[in-house]
Amino acid sequence: MKPDRLLLLCRPGFEGDTAAEIQAAAGEIGFPGYCRASADTGRVTLFPSVGAITEFTDRWQLAGALFPRQAFLTADPVALPERDRVSTILGALGDVPVSELVTETPDSEGGRAWTRLARALDGPLRRGLTEAGLWRPGSEAPRLHLLLDDDGAHVGLAPAGLDDPRPGGIPRLKRPKSAPSRSFLKLEEAWQTFLDAEERGRALQSGMRAVDLGAAPGGWTWLLQRRGLEVLAVDNGPLKGEVATAEGVTHIRADGFTWRPPRPVDWLVCDMVERPQRVAALAADWFAAGRCRYAVFNLKLPMRRRYAAVEECRKVIRDHLGHTPARVAVRHLYHDRDEVTAFIGPA
Fold this sequence. Notes:
30% of the residues lie in helices and 23% in strands.
């Protein structure tokens, strides 16, 4: 197999924003390439104008990207016959050994129609790889991706650090019945995205203090409280469900943009519906002033030029942090919709 392009998966409707981000990254690297994207496919492809696609992937990381969820190297898709599909896939792969297999589909209406077949092929393809002597689990061999959609089977490879090991780059989180809203999934995913397991253990300890600006109806407050944190839930609106009377939760009816804590807290979280630049400035000011040690906040995006809007917010954060050492990251999470989630923490 000779991959000649990079295939990226994103949320349907964000193909243009993903392409703009990747083109900007290619420009910074000095990589001569161009993107192709079709609306609502959840898929973007980067092609080299000259040279090899690895000239880009050797210097770019999915972990630091904004809109892409998944990435792997591939070539032209192949049509799958009614029978002996595994042999067709192995033929497209060639004699390349692989360390793992990810079967997936785009997170789109068209992609979901192929989910059952993708799952059904997982076991037979693993057996086929083993019989062909190409299955090398635990080795440094690349991961094999099999993406199915209306264009056919995209057989791809991802060396260490390029891709996400989860199908589609999608986390599988469940909503307990006691959660007041689904919004808590955004905060849970943010912790898993921006902090590794060791960091989560240090940063999310029982008895720590948190402020939830724009808390109502209480999804993020509920999750913080379940983690054992003491929460000041700031919102003029009411909290709903068990979180309204939960131990360790204090509801403060106030404006989240003007209220300030009496003493520093460990966490600031914010999911207020407001101009993204204003929220970005608020969170950065809290961190720079020492009012919090960590911040997670959502930035609601306009319908157009969303990548440009995020870049404006990044500049706002840098300007308001000034010389304060900090680690800043922004990501379009799976549980986000027309928004992105930002993180500020210790450098």
